[in-house]
Structure formats: structure tokens, C-alpha cells
Specification:
Largest sheet: 7 strands, mixed
CATH superfamily of one domain: Formyl transferase, N-terminal domain
Structural class: alpha/beta
Radius of gyration: 16 Å
Distance between the termini: 32 Å
CATH class of one domain: Alpha Beta
Helix content: 25-40%
Oligomer: single chain
Shape: globular
Strand order of the largest sheet: 3-2-1-4-5-6-7
CATH topology of one domain: Rossmann fold
Length: 206
């Protein structure tokens, strides 16, 4: 069994990915301990989920900071405070400018097969709509190390799903999210076991 990695979960909304992490940990399928949840907005349901699970939660309200740099420094301070080994972006809609000390220690999940259909403005339902408009026969999700470019960085895990005739944003979103619930814990377990060390080191050298 790999060591339990100290996980920070960064959220901006309902926390469905957070819920998945909590469930997988309870099942013994995720080698992690969530030590803090950080929200970029107050009053979101993810904070209630954290409270119900007994997980410390802090709000770093993006609207209270004049710059990305100041906001990012506040996020880093919370991660440091809780001794986070791996930060996970889980529907986090604000840009976190990652300092060198956290390069190779921040994972993101994107609801499409990167490098396609990624970049600034490509998140949530917008991604699925673009996939459908493009006529792609396949979609999926990508877990990757985050750097300071939207939806960029070394890929850790990808899962694929078919795009079916008659798909809507909602039906495709549901199919992709089912794979997200598998892919993200898989990537965290790989990190915990040291199997992503080479990818992380590559990122720090760029």
C-alpha cells in the first residue's frame, strides 16, 4: 500500500469531485488524506461537503485580491500551513499562479482529451458543447500536472468515451464525469506511489 498523500482540494462550486475523493478514500480506493479544502468563493456547497466530512476548509476569496499574484500567494500560504503534498484543482475556476515550490505538485482534471479543446475559457459545459459541435467521435477526460498555462502540462492519465449519435451536453457530460471519477483517483495513487516523479521532475526543469 502506498503512503497516504496529504491532499489539498481547490474548489469553486458544488464539489462533486471532492465528494468523489471523500467516497474513494472511505472505500480504501484512494491513498490520500484530504487535509484542507480551499474555495475561491464563499458560500459554495463544496464547503458544506467538507464540513460534513470533518475536513478543514478555508476561503481565499478571489474578489478580495487585486491581482493574480496576491491571490496565488494566499493560496500557497494555506497549502503550506496544512503541509499539503499534492494540490488538486477540482472545478477551481480562478487562475492559481503556481510557484516553483509547487510545480509538479498540482494536478488538474479537464473534461476533454487534451491537447484538444483546452485553454482559457474551455471549462464545464462549454467544453462538451465544443466537442459536440466539432463532430468528434470520441471524448474523455485528462488528468495532468498544472503549470501556469491553462490546460497545459504533462499528462498523467487519460480516459476515453465514445460520442454517441444524439448526444447532448448533459448526456456527454455524465459519461465523461463517470470516467473523471476513475481517472483522478488513479492519478493521485500514481503520485502517492512515486510513479509520476519523472513527469513532475520534467515539469520543474522547463
Amino acid at each position: 500500500m502506498a503512503k497516504k498523500v496529504r491532499l489539498g482540494v481547490l474548489v469553486s462550486g458544488g464539489g462533486t469531485t471532492l465528494r468523489n475523493f471523500i467516497d474513494k478514500i472511505a472505500e480504501g480506493a484512494l491513498d490520500a488524506e484530504i487535509v484542507v479544502v480551499i474555495s475561491s468563493r464563499p458560500g459554495v456547497y463544496a464547503l458544506e461537503r467538507a464540513g460534513n466530512a470533518g475536513i478543514p476548509a478555508e476561503v481565499v476569496n478571489r474578489k478580495e485580491y487585486d491581482s493574480v499574484e496576491a491571490f496565488s500567494e494566499a493560496i500557497t500560504a494555506v497549502l503550506d500551513k496544512y503541509g499539503v503534498e499534492l494540490a488538486t484543482l477540482a472545478g477551481f475556476l480562478s487562475l492559481y499562479r503556481i510557484p516553483y515550490s509547487y510545480l509538479g505538485r498540482v494536478l488538474n482534471i479537464h473534461p476533454a482529451l487534451l491537447p484538444g479543446h483546452g485553454g482559457k475559457g474551455y471549462y464545464g459545459d462549454r467544453v462538451h458543447a465544443v466537442v459536440l459541435e466539432s463532430g468528434d467521435r470520441e471524448s474523455g477526460c485528462t488528468v495532468h500536472f498544472a503549470d501556469n498555462v491553462y490546460d497545459h502540462g504533462p499528462i498523467a492519465v487519460q480516459k476515453r468515451v465514445p460520442v454517441l449519435p444524439g448526444d447532448t451536453v448533459e448526456t456527454l457530460k455524465k459519461r465523461v464525469f463517470e470516467q473523471e471519477c476513475i481517472a483522478y483517483p488513479e492519478a493521485i495513487n500514481l503520485f502517492a506511489s512515486g510513479k509520476l516523479d519523472a513527469l513532475a521532475a520534467k515539469l520543474r526543469k522547463t
